Amino acid sequence: MQRRHSWAEPYKIKMVEHLRMTTRAEREAAIAEAGFNTFLLRSNDVYIDLLTDSGTSAMSDRQWAGLMLGDEAYAGSRNFYHLESAVRQFYGYRHLIPTHQGRGAEHILSIMCIKDGDFVPGNMYFTTTKAHQELAGATFVDVIVDQAHDPQDQSPFKGNVDLAKLEALIARVGAERIPYLCMQTNVNMAGGQPISLENIKATSRLCRKHGIKIMMDATRAVENAYFIKVREKGYENQSIAHILLEMCSYTDGCTCSAKKDSLVNIGGWLAVNDDELAEQARNLVVVYEGLHTYGGLAGRDMEAMAIGIEESVQYDHIHARIGQVEYLGDALIRNGVPVVRPIGGHGIFIDAARFLPHVPREQFPAQALAAALYVQSGVRAMERGAVSSGRRHDTGENIFPKLELVRLTIPRRVYTQAHMDVTAEAVIELYENARDIVGLRFTFEPKYLRFFQARFEPVVGSKVLRTESLEAPVAASMGDGI
């Protein structure tokens, strides 16, 4: 009988950041002050921060050393050329335009390519991407496969483009009104679900036939490459770097928030193959971001990014990164907590509609669940449902997507397995007492991307979690400090 060996992170810790423990009363006061929006909490009041994996990763010793090599020249920084070389090597695109973060690249791409009245198809929307497309005058059209909207569907590639939906859109509006297809990798709003290489190839063939560009959102393309390696036949023996390069080869360019896969705390880029498009982008980046060889970034940031790109495609790193997400997901599934399946790449997505069936969609169950989780345990998660979806432009009515989710997003190389255990225990205990959670209503609603700054209040009483009997699972082991 073969002995089973334990698994451990492929790194060791040489610096620690202390976490602050809070009492339940402190957390109740903090969430009320934040308008029951976890984005408005002060990080000092958070115990385990799973709000996002964007810019929250821990950098390696090589990246920290790279900061000391920052060439802060205004023009022609050597760090730009190192970054350009890394993008060409691992993503394959000819031209690199750095930006302060991913949405800077989305903005430039949108105003450069979109005309008023255009349509931009994509395999599910992402909040900032869709906002930039709409502000430029386009209408976003979801062409993802239907399985992506079913949390319980176990299809391995729920991020795939539905080619029939895409063909129907082309027939309806004409290819000339589609500036590009926005292809997400490891589709965030679907629960971190990947797209297969087979589907990328087929989508590319269809778009080439109609003269439509494909612009990839490569923010989590490395995670997507890992899923192709472990789930798609014929790629099990290919390296992550090889798969990533092949994925990009079927597209015309990409936007990327380097704050995810590339393991840095700030930065992003736009990359294209077309010379004319690249020249337009360089001209626009000077207007909105900074000179085309720094794009709003310090030289040291570009150096850390170049090193992070190289580290990101190492199998040991990406295997451990996604393995930690799966560890948390498996613990929740074993205890009956409804989550999006299969487990995605960057976080666990709790099905808030099933978790809180007594809370109507009009009372934003995902927002309420995220607030309640914080009150109980000090764990900060975020809403990915109706609040994130916004309102219809024509009627002003709330958009209620099929997926009403709470995202537990795992930063890279930051937390230990014990933090995942504490998080799982908190969610499981909350699920056992789910009927004590009440819904929320708006008290303040911004016009754009409302989930960042909106404020709420409970529809009943003054607390989102009514019971006083629940205590955070960590209390027994951490003493009176939590």
Give an account of the 3D structure.
It is a single chain. The chain is α/β, with parallel strands linked by helices. It has two domains: 24-53 and 315-481, Aspartate Aminotransferase, domain 1, CATH 3.90.1150.10; 61-312, Aspartate Aminotransferase, domain 2. Helices cover 39% and strands 12% of the residues. It has 17 helices and 14 strands. The chain has helices spanning 24-33, 61-67, 78-90, 102-113, 127-135, 163-173, 197-210, 221-231, 240-249, 275-288, 299-312, 315-334, 352-355, 365-377, 386-389, 417-432, 475-478, and strands at 48-49, 95-99, 119-122, 139-142, 180-184, 213-217, 253-257, 268-272, 347-351, 379-380, 382-384, 405-409, 440-444, 455-458. The chain has a five-stranded mixed β-sheet, sandwiched between helices. A three-stranded antiparallel β-sheet has the order 9-12-11. A two-stranded parallel sheet has the order 1-10. Helix 7 (197-210) links the parallel strand 5 and strand 6. Helix 2 (61-67) runs antiparallel to helix 11 (299-312) and helix 4 packs across helix 10. The longest helix is centred in the last third of the chain and has 20 residues, at 315-334. It starts with 23 loop residues before the first helix and ends with a helix. Mean pLDDT is 94; it is low at 469-482.
Indicate the topology:
Layout: H1 24-33, E1 48-49, H2 61-67, H3 78-90, E2 95-99, H4 102-113, E3 119-122, H5 127-135, E4 139-142, H6 163-173, E5 180-184, H7 197-210, E6 213-217, H8 221-231, H9 240-249, E7 253-257, E8 268-272, H10 275-288, H11 299-312, H12 315-334, E9 347-351, H13 352-355, H14 365-377, E10 379-380, E11 382-384, H15 386-389, E12 405-409, H16 417-432, E13 440-444, E14 455-458, H17 475-478
Parallel strand pairs: 1-10, 3-4, 5-6, 6-7
Antiparallel strand pairs: 2-8, 7-8, 9-12, 11-12, 13-14
